[in-house]
Amino acid sequence: MSEVSRKRSRSQEDDDSGSRSSLPPAENRTRDADYWFDDGNLILVAEEVEFRVYAAPLMRRSPVFREMLSLPQPQADGAAYLSIPTVRLYDHPTDVRRLLGSIIFGNDLRFVKDRPDFRTLSSLIRMGHKYQIDYAVEGALAYLQHYCSYPSPSQLTDLQAVPSNFSALDHIGVVNIARLTHTPELRLLGLAHCCTLHPKALVRGLKREDGTSEKLSPEDLTIVLLVRAELIKDDGLDVLCIRDGAEDCEYAEECRWMLMRFLAYHIGTQEQQSSSASWRQAWSSQLQDLHMLPSDRYADSIVAREPEKQHSMTGCIFGHSRE
Question: What InterPro entries does the database record attribute to this sequence (predicted)?
Fold first, then answer.
C-alpha cells in the first residue's frame, strides 16, 4: 500500500475519533478485563467500556492520538482516579480492544489466538486506517492478501483457497477493505466470491459486531449482479458446447451421454449454477468427484477449453469495473 493512500486527509469518521464530551456516567461503565492497567495514565471510553492504558505508546504510534492528546483533556469522574485524563472514542469496544492489542504487540498478530478471522483483520485495518497506525493496517492487510490472493487470473477460480474461518459473506467486507486500502487485486477476488452469494444476501449485507450491516457500494453491487447474469448465460453455452468433444474418440457416443448426465446433475438440479462456489472447476475434476470418467481423449478435448472458460469471470469483472 502506498504512502499516499495511508496518509490521507482527515475524513468525517476521523473527526469522530475522540471527544471530551458526552461521556457516559461512571457508574454505568465497566472496566475492560484485558486493558485496564492500574498505573495507566489515560482512560479511553468506548460505549460503556473503559480502557486504562498508557498514553505514550498511543501518541508514538498514532498521529491522530498524538493530536488528540496534545489538547487539554477532562479528568475522570471516578473518585479513585480523579487526575487521569479521559477520552471518549466513538468506536465499538471490540474494535478498540483489537487496536490496543496491535499497539502493544505490534503487527505480528501475536495477540490473536490461532488464525485471525475476517472480523479481526477488518477491525485492525479499519481502525488502523482511522487512527493512521500504518503497521496495524499493513500487518493485517498482508495476512489477508496472503490467504486471499491468486497467482494469476486463470487461477482466480479456485474460490476454496481462503481461510476456513472466513464466511461467504465476509467477502463483502473484503471488497470494501480493498477499496479502503486501494488494493485492486484484493477487490477482484472479493468480487469473484460475491458472485457466489444469493442476491438477497448481497442486499442484506454483512452484519458487524456493532449491529450495523456492511454492504457493497452501489457500483460493486451492480458489477456483481451483471457478472452473475453473464455467468448464468455461460452455463447455457456450456450445455450447447459440451457435446463437442473429440469426434475421433472410440467411445464418443457413450462419453456424450455421460456428460449429458453430468449436466443434468450439475446444472439441472443445482440452485445457483454458475454462482455456486465450484462454478468453474475443471470438468474433469467434477466428473471424477461423481465417479463419471469419460475416455481420456474425450476428456482432454474438453479440458483444453478450460483456460478460456476460467478467464470469463475475470474478464467480466474487469470489463464492468472499467465502465
Answer: SKP1/BTB/POZ_sf
Residue with cell 479521559: 86
One pLDDT digit (tens) per residue for the chain, 323 residues: 444 344 454 444 455 555 544 565 666 789 999 999 999 999 999 999 999 999 999 999 999 999 988 877 665 555 455 578 889 999 999 999 999 988 887 655 655 666 788 999 999 999 999 999 998 899 889 888 876 665 444 445 455 566 778 888 999 999 999 999 999 888 888 888 888 888 999 999 999 988 889 999 999 999 998 888 877 776 665 555 555 556 667 766 777 777 777 766 665 545 444 444 344 455 556 666 666 656 666 666 666 665 555 555 555 665 555 55
Grid cell of 136 as nine digits: 496495524
What is the CA angle 50-51-57, rounded to 5?
155
Tell which residue, 117, 271, 278, 102, has the closest CA to residue 206: 117
Specify which residues 132 forms β-bridges with.
Answer: none
- At a CB cut-off of 8 Å and minimum separation 6, what does 178 contact? 184, 186, 187, 190
Write down the pTM of the prediction. Answer: 0.71
**Phi-psi bin for 132: left (phi > 0), alpha (psi -120 to 50), beta?**
left
Q: How many CB atoms lie within 10 A of CB 251?
A: 14
Between the CA of residue 117 and those of 34, 114, 128, 137, 236, what are the distances in Å? 20, 9, 17, 15, 37
Find out whether 45 and 91 touch, Cβ atoms under 8 Å: no
Cβ pair 290, 265 in contact under 8 A: yes
Domains along the chain with CATH numbers: 3-139 (3.30.710.10), 221-322 (no CATH)
Closest CA to 315 of 159, 122, 157: 157
